[in-house]
Amino acid sequence: MCYKCGALLAYDYRPGFNDTCDRCGKDLHVCLMCRFYTPGAHWDCRETIEELVADKERRNHCDFFIISEKYLDKGRTADSKQSDEAKRRFNSLFGE
User: Fold this and answer.
1) Residue 7: how many CA atoms within 13 Å on its side-chain side?
2) Alpha carbon of 74 to those of 1, 18, 71, 78, 88: distances in Å?
3) What is the pTM of this model?
4) What is the pLDDT, as a whole number, of residue 86?
5) Other residues' Cβ atoms within 10 Å of the Cβ of residue 82
6) pLDDT at 91 over 80
7) 78 pLDDT exceeds 80?
8) Contact, 60 vs 53, CB < 8 A?
9) pLDDT tens for residues 21-55?
10) Where does residue 75 fall: left (phi above 0), alpha (psi -120 to 50 degrees), or beta otherwise?
11) If we measure between CA atoms, which residue out of 22, 81, 50, 5 comes closest to residue 33?
């Protein structure tokens, strides 16, 4: 999902350097969405980057970037969420 608006991203999605969120337009190849982003680490990164990336919300060309698992949809697509909502409404008709 997008770190800013929460728009779903497919489980196998890998953001390119210039990819942006379809919903809010924010950059997706950013430190905040990287698995190596660790506030408090040297330059907030667990990798051995050569220079500081000051703005963690702007696109960068870091070759170490791997999207963090917490931003990927692990099988819960919009369709399955809508299905869950339909089931909840159906069950509420019978007091369940």
Assistant:
1) 13
2) 10, 24, 9, 11, 21
3) 0.72
4) 72
5) 10
6) no
7) no
8) yes
9) 999 999 999 999 999 999 999 999 999 998 999 99
10) left
11) 5
> Where do we find the tokens 């210039």?
18
Amino acid at 17: F
Distance from the Cα of residue 12 to its chain's centroid: 12
What single string gives the DSSP state of each residue in the chain?
--TTT-----TT----TT-B-TTT--BSSSGGGBTTB-TTSGGGBSS--SS----TTS----TT--B-GGGS-SS--HHHHHHHHHHHHHHHHTT-
Position 3, amino acid: Y
What is the average pLDDT value for the chain, to the nearest integer? Answer: 86
